[in-house]
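HUMAN: Please help interpret these tokens:
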Amino acid sequence: MTDSSMAGAPPLTVMTVNIHKGFTTFNRKFILPELRDAVRKVGADVVFLQEVQGTHEDHCRKVNGWPDAPHYEFLADSIWPHNAYGRNMVHAKGHHGNALMSKFPIVHYQNHDVSVAGPEKRGLLHCVIRVPGQPLDVHAICVHLGLAESHRMHQLDLLCEMVRGEVPDNEPLVVAGDFNDWRRRANAILEREIGLREVFVNAYGEPAKTFPARFPLLCLDRIYVRNASVHLPVVLPRKPWSHLSDHAPLVAEIHL
């Protein structure tokens, strides 16, 4: 991270949260409308979302309060006019994946399939955001890595390869999401290979505990940056978040 931000430039507030397809833990209750209210109150400029439902033929008929629009559009509404969605898991009744909501224009996006053989489908959603007053575009990559460590190691290699090929060395980069990295191996790899720094490690000496949200023990969710500095990253409080997601959301103020 750089030690100083651009003079006079407002910070960019980012948030990441795994929304579990709009349901509480164990799919007991559909809570997407409550989740939308909570995300709005945070007021982040850019929101990284994992496990976002695009469509589901059965749920749209049977689940009370199921929106007509894809979930990322329902969450974005009028607050985040720019959004992108990357389908990862496609099945007979619908699909889900990662999404990014932004208050600023997304001038380009691409979803990269990083699935490893088997039923678990994963992706890296790369968005290029044009922030008013900033001379350089901001690259934002929404991440959801696999549960198996061998899969994660391969996916981290693919992430590094993608950054080298698609992100100019001098442009700001934010990589955030659910890394499922309970053994804490990603930090050293990403810093060594592509110069990413994890914001909680930089600020407090260790990554944030985010899972399970009610009593967090594991550091699964991360925010990494390059060519930017970060002020006071926070884990959002249990109330109301432990009711809304099994992952505690992270928020950081990023200075470009």
Observations:
- Helices lie at 32-42, 57-62, 71-76, 149-166, 186-194, 199-204, 238-244.
- The first helix runs from residue 32 to 42.
- The two ends are 10 Å apart (CA to CA).
